[in-house]
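As agreed, record passed on underneath.
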Amino acid sequence: MTVSASLRKDLLEQIPNLRAFAHSLCGNGDEADDLVQETLMRAWANLASFREGTNLRAWLFTILRNAFYSSRRRRRNETSDYDGQAADRLVVLPSQDRHMDLEDFRKALAGIPEEQREALILIGASGFSYEEAAGICGCAIGTVKSRVSRARRRLAELLSMEEGGDFGPSSAAETVGEPAVTGDLAVHLRK
């Protein structure tokens, strides 16, 4: 596409007006210059859609305004991290570790006596109260509590943990909102 000399001249004449408008939106000279540059790039790329004889200034101001609000929407999802401290705190745990931990847990759970496993699953995983679990198992509440306690202790032994305190990822992951172990079962395992 060939651009007429008058359109080029009109486009160049609008730069000071675009800078003033951009500066009023941004409040920062460098950011305003970047916005004007973005506007001119978009205008040049879409020059075929502009009809000569219409209001070039209004067309350019619309492009500038749209570019400004688009950049603001993108920035809402960004975090300024000039010194790199936020990036240093991010931790992504290897996904295979969770799978392997779950597999180890399943094997350990299968390795405890059936009565203890049943009590632990009723209390920890299914969310029943001790009274409800006692009714389901047909035994006294104290018996259920004892079975759960012994099941927790045996699981910790089988998983080589100190009284259930090692369940879940490292404390570094917990600092970025990663839960150590999810579900009620984890809470009951730690007790």
User: Anything to note?
Assistant: The chain has two domains: 5-73, 95-190. Confidence is low (pLDDT under 50) at residues 163-184. The two ends are 75 Å apart (CA to CA). The first helix runs from residue 5 to 13.
